[in-house]
Amino acid sequence: MIYGNKFLGRTNMPNDGVGLVEQTKKYIATMFQGNSDGHDYDHMIRVYNNAMEIYKIEKTGDILVIQLAALLHDVDDHKLFNTTNYENARKFLMSNNVPEETIERVVDVIGSVSFSKNGLQRPATIEGCIVQDADRLDAIGAIGIARAFAFGGSHGNTLLDTVDHFEKKLLLLRNGMNTKGGKVIANKRHSIMVAFLRELSADMDIG
Ligand code: ADP
Ligand code: NI
Fold first, then answer.
1. What average pLDDT does range 10-21 have in this prediction?
2. For the chain: N or C, fewer Cβ within 10 A?
3. What pLDDT was estimated at residue 207?
4. Which residue has the higher pLDDT, 25 or 15?
5. What was the pLDDT predicted at 32?
6. How many Cβ atoms sit within 10 Å of the Cβ of residue 62?
7. Considering the entire predicted model, what is its pTM?
8. How confident is the model over 145-179, as pLDDT tens digits?
């Protein structure tokens, strides 16, 4: 055999960042199909878009690491998948011939994104700061409100339980933003939540 086993099944693999990003979008489309608690394909794309917007302002960081981590940040979320050591992300990246060093940087960024794992702790790398901000932006503002109630409903929580989640987490996210761009977008989204909660509290008051 001329090429050896290691090339078997690896024809037409993307060998540039653009092809790889497209492959990653296809992969997450299959991974999050049918999700109704706010962790769907669109969430991953919005996080990707937020990250690109922040990256344009920051003008620093490894764009491919940011893109891959943004798209893959929930593929090993313990609430959704039963994996350890970022197995899904690693397998996907390895099967697409991504260099080991890049894979390590991507999973390091993924590890620094989660609120439940890191709280308001600032990630050590600029890529981590950008992707963490991008994910948290999708938890606040109008989209954050929609996702919170979708999450609450799909977990059997009452409306008041979800209002409590705003106090305990969502209203704190603005002050935890790492980047300049993240802070600007977060300020606007925070005001939308405050206005919404004021209206909601009046509407929910049953005397
Ligand atoms: P992380 O993995 O960063 O800790 P989560 O996966 O818990 O974040 O949260 C993702 C989304 O689900 C956010 O939009 C968040 O507001 C929402 N969410 C998480 N927990 C609750 C809850 N108890 N009530 C309502 N929404 C929630
Ligand atoms: Ni997320």
1. 62
2. C
3. 83
4. 25
5. 93
6. 17
7. 0.90
8. 999 999 999 899 999 999 999 999 999 999 999 99
* Distance from C-alpha of 131 to C-alpha of 155, rounded to nearest angstrom: 26
* CA 184 to ligand 1 centroid distance, Å: 22
Give 164's contacts (C-beta < 8 A, 6+ positions apart).
none
The Cα–Cα gap between 68 and 92 comes to 11
Nearest Cα residue to 66 out of 152, 142, 167, 178: 178
- DSSP readout, 113-153? T-HHHHTTPPPSSHHHHHHHHHHHHTTSHHHHHHHHHHHHH
Yes or no: say if 185 and 137 are a contact pair by the CB < 8 Å rule: yes
Instruction: Tell me the C-alpha distance between 60 and 55, whole Å.
Output: 7
For residues 196 and 35, give the distance between their C-alpha atoms in angstroms, rounded to a whole number: 26
Encoding tokens for residue 159? 């409306």
Residue 90 CA, ligand 2 centroid: distance in Å: 18
**Shortest-distance Cα residue to atom 17 of ligand 1:** 148
| CA 106 to each of CA 3, 112, 143, 149, 204: distance values in angstroms, whole numbers, following the listed order | 29, 10, 26, 30, 44
pLDDT at 30: 95
CB 201 within 8 A of CB 189: no
Which residue type does 28 have? I
